[in-house]
Specification:
By secondary structure, the chain is α/β, with parallel strands linked by helices. It has 7 helices and 17 strands. It is elongated. It starts with a strand and ends with a helix.
């Protein structure tokens, strides 16, 4: 039995493991995909404190190595259920593990379009965060996919950097706030294309454009772009845990900055919880807070 099991091996989960191990707690980190999380898809990151620049994969490797050095255990498996009780049972597709406390740090995945060649260009022309990657497209041409608040905010930020910004929306109107829409239409380097969907991403070793199709006529045209920012929402990875944590209407764990849940000994951290800002720095902060709270919980049980 472990003191703490951490579900999710992204920046929040790994930071939680780091803090828990430094508090001399036995720790198991379970991750179903890539240790390091979504950041591993970013080719270049410049907003991580203490680093001028490095790739997301380099950052993830350094963080994993740091946690390994501290003595945490790792398991590649998918958690399918958590059974709450005095002792927590974490059920995976390859076995069961028990712990005194559990931190859920499963993150949220960016919703994808499903267009042809999409997987080929993620992290190599397709981005999900203008704050993170927008500077790489200074004086270049980009497209933002989506028409909600997040997409409009991304587009406005990119208008300050890029030469040209296309906004491609599948509906015949933008769904974001009127004020954001007005600000976007006022930008001379912005072009809004409604009633169109992305059919495919074009290019060989690097992205060169996207093909879009009119939902009314079916006509297909091509936009020459250097990069694409997909902003059609996030999908929190909390469904297997709805029996032990309260979820909001969008599926996020209903927990505040304290990372506490209604069930004693179960904590949440990172992008899977309700929060305004989802960045590496805020995920790491959550990991530290959740870990220290879990350590206190374990100490008080002994």
């Amino acid at each position: 039995m472990y003191d703490i099991i951490i579900v999710g091996g992204g920046p929040a989960g790994l930071t939680a493991a780091l803090y828990a191990r430094r508090a001399n707690k036995s720790v198991l980190v379970i991750e179903k995909e890539t240790f390091g999380g979504q950041i591993t898809f970013s080719p270049k990151v410049e907003n991580i404190p203490g680093h001028l620049t490095l790739s997301g994969n380099e950052f993830a490797e350094k963080l994993v190595d740091q946690v390994i050095e501290q003595g945490a255990d790792f398991e590649s498996a998918e958690v399918t259920e958590i059974k709450n009780g005095d002792i927590k049972t974490v059920i995976t597709d390859s076995g069961e593990y028990t712990a005194k406390s559990v931190i859920i740090a499963t993150g949220a995945k960016h919703r994808l379009i499903g267009a042809k060649n999409e997987q080929n260009f993620i992290g190599n022309g397709i981005s999900f965060c203008a704050v993170c990657d927008g500077a790489f497209y200074t004086d270049k041409t980009v497209a933002v996919i989506g028409g909600g608040n997040s997409a409009l905010q991304e587009a406005l930020l990119l208008c300050d950097l890029a030469k040209k910004v296309y906004v491609v929306q599948n509906l015949d109107f933008l769904t974001g706030e009127k004020k954001l829409s007005e600000q976007l239409y006022a930008r001379e380097n912005a072009s809004v294309i409604t009633g169109s969907v992305v059919e495919s991403y074009e290019g060989e070793s690097e992205l060169t454009g996207i093909k879009i199709k009119s939902t009314a006529s079916g006509e297909i045209s091509e936009l020459k772009v250097d990069g694409v920012f997909v902003a059609i929402g996030l999908v929190p990875q909390n469904e297997p845990f709805k029996n032990v944590i309260k979820l909001d209407e969008r599926g996020y764990a209903a927990a505040d900055e304290n990372c506490l849940t209604e069930n004693g000994g179960i904590f949440v951290a990172g992008d899977c919880r309700t929060k305004k800002i989802r960045q590496v720095a805020t995920a790491a902060a959550d990991g530290a807070i959740a870990a220290l709270a879990a350590c206190d919980f374990v100490d008080n049980k002994q």
